[in-house]
Amino acid sequence: MTTVAQLRKAALGLPEVEEGTHFGMVSFAVRGKGFASVTKEGDVQVQLPDAAVDEALAAHPSGERLERLGKPIGFRVPLKDINGKDLNALVYASWAHRAPKRLAAALADAQIAAEGPVGDLPATIGKPATRALLGAGITGLEDVARHSAAELLALHGVGPKAVRILGEELRARGLDFQA
After folding, report:
1. Class of the domain covering 4-99
2. Strand 17-22 versus strand 25-30 pairing type
3. Which of 34, 68, 70, 132 gives 20 to 30 Å between its CA and that of 173?
4. pTM
């Protein structure tokens, strides 16, 4: 059984997501567009394209199609009836459906990033930091230099070690973090 805390972690781990309330429900939005919420009854609701709703219905028989004014908009399933891995996949699919195309593409690129360095980002910062940077649209050291160390640390997956390594690489190239 999954919980609202797991839903929150999955949603807030994605770029540019904000938590709020919508009609009294905990809800999540990307750049102002809602993509996931949880009802007072404990049902998770995600906005998805029709094909993804059909797949979700096949995988989760206790779920149902969400409609607004007779138009299909997504999928609803009790949190207790879905495991964490499936919840994460639904939240990601919903986020990708509602996020701006460039933002969704940047995260998709980050998720398929190859082993080792991407662009001129050092491999020693680790995969989580590399994915976080790519997900934020930061693909090289020149992009890194346009941000402060604090901004980078605020990205989920970028820790002090990664920032230290990036700082060393920047200084070796005559660059530095934004003040």
Report:
1. alpha beta
2. antiparallel
3. 132
4. 0.66
